[in-house]
Design goal:
globular, 12 strands, TIM Barrel, 15 helices, alpha/beta, two-stranded antiparallel sheet
């Protein structure tokens, strides 16, 4: 099920409506008064300790998750080449080690939008956390707190911003898909601002979904009781995609100007891959840019984000922070992103796999692995702090 189908099925926001029942097939085994979540038993701390890298976490998650849910999380558009390149292009970048530097006091803290971060890592917005863990985004928020990182809550979350904020101990940002009904869009922006969201991330790169063949073959089922509290009131699909018709959602730079005019939250634009768009975004009042290809889920065969990052960063020239997501699986990947101009990175699929295998503790475990690997890489590169991770750490 893609975003258009979600929104079409929601109707006036009642997830038990006839529209939703027509859009998904609910197995009889899931129709009791309580949904017995297939991942309700968290992996114990001892087993989490055996997961030494993010690939270990994904491998265990794949064994535990329903295949349709795993394909929804792992899949992308068309032939999934951009997903593959997001990882491979990091591997093509080599590092230049320096020796005998004083790295006795390593420090991976940094500053983003005027706030001090324990590490340059954020949890990217991803939807449907209740499909992988019964506590959904509440567990994710608790995991972010355990790890000391900011969570970006998706518009497509199964838990409301208000509920997430009640359990969060670290800042929460909100990712916005701009509703076709601008009145609903305004109401949601005002709602998340009133709830205390620390920033607004406007997704600008998906006027419609790409051809998600793997996801569509998987025939994802949304179980009873799993809702979308930020889509309430939506009655019309934002896009129409059939074999005969492709009609994208209308969203242009005038809408970004409008969003900037109605909120005091810092506004970041998510989905910037072009230096020209970066420049226009800054002129439209963006407080930050997120270099993202939507995790390879929209336009397949566009470049990896690590390839686009240096061009965007050069155009921005330090005027606003630049964040990058897509393909980050190692601490050395974070080093390379920072060296090429990123202020921080976002991870998506990896922490969802952590959520699936260990709930809040699983999310924190994924972040802690990356932090440990980042600090190890800094020490081996002879760089004591984040500011020292510049292009000179790269092998020319």
């Amino acid at each position: 099920m893609n975003r258009k189908t979600f929104l079409t099925a929601l109707g006036a926001g009642a997830l038990g409506s006839q529209a939703l029942k027509a859009a998904v097939v609910v197995p009889t085994s899931l129709c009791g008064t309580e949904w017995n979540h297939p991942y309700s038993r968290s992996t114990g701390g001892a087993q989490l300790a055996e997961l030494l890298c993010l690939d270990d976490v994904e491998a265990l998650a794949q064994r535990q998750m329903l295949s349709s849910v795993y394909d929804f999380v792992a899949g992308g558009a068309a032939d999934e080449l951009t997903i593959r390149w997001n990882r491979e292009k990091y591997r093509d970048i080599r590092l230049q080690q320096r020796v005998l530097a004083d790295v006795s006091d390593l420090d991976c803290t940094t500053t983003l939008l005027g706030k001090r971060l324990a590490m340059p890592i954020l949890l990217a917005p991803t939807a449907n956390h209740r499909l992988v863990h019964p506590d959904g985004e509440l567990a994710t928020a608790r995991g972010a707190g355990l790890a000391g990182v900011t969570m970006v809550l998706s518009s497509g979350s199964n838990t409301s911003i208000e509920a997430v904020k009640q359990v969060a101990t670290e800042p929460v940002w909100f990712q916005l898909y701009v509703s076709k009904d601008r009145g609903l869009a305004r109401a949601l922006i005002q709602r998340v601002e009133a709830a205390g969201a620390a920033a607004l991330c406007v997704t600008v790169d998906s006027p419609l979904d790409g051809p998600r063949n793997r996801q569509n073959r998987a025939k994802l089922v949304i179980p009873p009781g799993v809702g979308y509290p930020h889509y309430l009131g939506i009655t019309a699909p934002p896009t129409v995609v059939t074999l005969d018709t492709v009609q994208a959602q209308l969203l242009d730079w005038r809408d970004i100007d409008w969003i900037r005019s109605i909120t005091k939250m810092p506004m970041l634009l998510k989905g910037i891959m072009s230096p020209a768009d970066a420049e226009t975004g800054i002129k439209a009042g963006a407080d930050g840019l997120i270099v993202s290809n939507h995790g390879g889920r929209c336009l397949d065969t566009q470049p990896a984000t690590i390839e686009a990052l240096p061009r965007v960063a050069q155009q921005v020239n330090g005027r606003v922070p630049v964040i990058v997501d897509g393909g980050i699986r190692r601490g050395t990947d974070i080093v390379k992103a920072l060296a090429l101009g990123a202020t921080a990175v976002q991870i998506g699929r990896p922490y969802v796999y952590g959520l699936a295998v260990g709930g809040a503790e699983g999310v924190a475990h994924v972040v802690k692995i990356l932090r440990q690997e980042l600090l190890l890489a800094m020490a081996l590169l002879g760089r004591r702090n984040i500011a020292a991770l510049d292009r000179t750490v790269l092998w020319d």
